[in-house]
Amino acid sequence: MSGRTQLARIFVLPRSAMQSGRGRSQGWTLAFEPGERQRLDPLMGWAGSGDTNSQVTLNFETKEDAIAYAEANGIPYEVEEPKPVRIKAKVYADNFRYGRAENWTH
């Protein structure tokens, strides 16, 4: 890598489409932004680059741990705060409520 250090992002990984609750959504990740564009390998046709930092992701328990690691190692960073998760409580009795707005689904 050249003398220029790459910017790192500190963020919470989003939930997968298969998750409905808050499980495995805790913890913070430090990942480096791409340092150079990917290019096609002429022999195999695979996309790649000489930037190995883009392959590194570090996981931390708290945001403060991730920030402390970045500052201790002189890594410039930016923190992306997670969007609040809104979970709408559903009540079984609402399926039979008079005057409900949704169509009957079952």
UniProtKB/TrEMBL annotation:
InterPro entries xref list: NADH_UbQ_FeS_4_mit-like (IPR006885), NDUFS4-like_sf (IPR038532)
Pfam annotation, one family: NDUS4
Keywords carried by this UniProt record: Electron transport, Membrane, Respiratory chain, Transit peptide, Transport
Keyword Membrane found: yes
Oxidoreductase keyword on record: no
Top-level taxonomic group: Bacteria
Record organism: Belnapia rosea
Primary location recorded for the protein, binned into one broad class: membrane
Cellular component aspect of the GO annotation: membrane
Protein name stated in the entry: ETC complex I subunit conserved region
Protein's GO biological process: electron transport chain
UniProt-annotated location(s): Membrane
